[in-house]
Amino acid sequence: MTRTVDVVVVGGGIIGVATARFLAEAGATVELIERDGLASHASGRNQGLLIGPHPPEMVPIAARGVQLYGDLHDRNDGAFFLDREPHGCLMVGAEDGLSPEELAEREPLLGPAVTSAAFEPDARRIDPGAAVAALAAEARTHGAVISTGVAVRELLRSGERVTGVLTDDGPRAAGTVVVAAGPWAWQVCRSTGFDVPVRGVRGWLVVTRPAPFRLRHAIEDASWSATKKGLTTPTVADYADGTVTPPAIAGLVQQDGAGRLLLGASLQTSGTDHAENQAEAVAAVCRRAAELVPAVRAVPVAELRTCRRPLSADGLPLHGPVPGTPGLVLAVGHGSQGITWGAGSGEAVAAGILGHGWEPRLLPDRFI
Ligand SMILES: Cc1cc2nc3c(=O)[nH]c(=O)nc-3n(C[C@H](O)[C@H](O)[C@H](O)COP(=O)(O)OP(=O)(O)OC[C@H]3O[C@@H](n4cnc5c(N)ncnc54)[C@H](O)[C@@H]3O)c2cc1C
């Protein structure tokens, strides 16, 4: 028998799980369908920093996110790691930054190549995969069904209207289908006339064993925001001619409470689920990290990690109905800040579906 719910959410990353949680809390019947495990892609494998700068549209969502994560942390007795006080981040290369003396005082371990940086005081670290698990547990408490290991293969239709999804586990009927499938959103929506303008941007991160020193703040190249804007999507000719652009690097050195370092990050438009260009990207990540903090060179590596950011064509998320396809809603394209915005975005998408309006205005019809 076809199971029927108010809302099916496709994708068990931070955006899908947060959306399901807020819908269920409001009384909607919800099933979230994830083909792998919860947070098994970008949402559980990223750097875990809640950080700006934010485009103006996303400022309220980012502020709300910090509040929601703090409340979630309280309700879960601190079951996942979250900086309750800001950790701060040095944005290397930013203009109007600290004087050399202030910089040396903020972080004595910076290398001589670092001559300018601004201090971003509000940055906080979070364990993103565990935060997703905590949101999912609350969604279940509010009655949501969470199905993992089940792929959505196709949208079910009645005329133009989407009426559910066809999964490996059978059909599901729903009043609304929310596609929160990250870089794969275009695949889920491929039978509609709307080509979801979100691509995958692969990042490589290097995780070390505990280091014998402590950094006072996260350290990031301020250029990351501009780097992501400059990314191109390879054409058929680029693959034919071997002219695919190599990974770009926006340096990052971040340390957890146990002393482990997280070094990053590469950015490269990627159309494959295979972990390509590991050697090239990891070498560049490690070189840049050693320029930022020379002491990292001697620290043993524990893990090389990769995932893909879902980056939209204009860098802003898509929240809202797919034009011309009633019953289908997108919650995708959160790029490099999907954890920072995740809880607030889930709440905003749920509010839109519940008829409280689509705020901020991030509607997919801007791409028509
Ligand atoms: C290297 C790196 C570092 C990052 N660091 C940060 C950071 O410090 N701070 C920050 O805020 N953000 C960061 N991000 C960005 C952040 O990780 C993403 O924006 C966010 O995780 C995206 O969440 P999502 O739920 O949209 O997508 P995803 O986490 O990709 O989830 C989508 C889910 O949909 C599922 N799915 C796809 N197709 C189907 C289908 N047909 N059926 C069922 N399920 C399906 C997938 O299996 C997947 O689990 C980073 C990203 C990268 C790559």
CATH class of the largest domain: Alpha Beta
Largest sheet: 8 strands, mixed
Shape label: globular
Q: What is the structural class?
A: alpha/beta
Offer a concise description of the structure.
The chain has helices spanning 14-25, 42-45, 59-75, 100-106, 128-141, 185-188, 224-229, 236-241, 278-292, 338-353, and strands spanning 3-10, 30-34, 49-50, 89-92, 117-120, 124-125, 145-148, 152-158, 161-167, 170-179, 198-210, 218-221, 248-255, 260-269, 301-312, 318-321, 328-332. It is α/β, with parallel strands linked by helices and 368 residues long. The chain has 2 domains: 3-80 and 126-197 and 314-367, 3-Layer(bba) Sandwich (FAD/NAD(P)-binding domain); 89-122 and 199-312, D-Amino Acid Oxidase, Chain A, domain 2 (2-Layer Sandwich), CATH 3.30.9.
Topology:
Layout: E1 3-10, H1 14-25, E2 30-34, H2 42-45, E3 49-50, H3 59-75, E4 89-92, H4 100-106, E5 117-120, E6 124-125, H5 128-141, E7 145-148, E8 152-158, E9 161-167, E10 170-179, H6 185-188, E11 198-210, E12 218-221, H7 224-229, H8 236-241, E13 248-255, E14 260-269, H9 278-292, E15 301-312, E16 318-321, E17 328-332, H10 338-353
Parallel strand pairs: 1-2, 1-10, 2-7, 4-12, 10-17
Antiparallel strand pairs: 3-6, 4-5, 8-9, 9-10, 11-14, 11-15, 12-13, 13-14, 16-17
Helix pairs in contact: 1-5, 1-10, 3-10
Flavin-adenine dinucleotide binds at residues 10-16, 33-36, 40-43, 46-49, 151-152, 180-182, 184, 188, 203, 205, 264-265, 307-310, 332, 334-340.
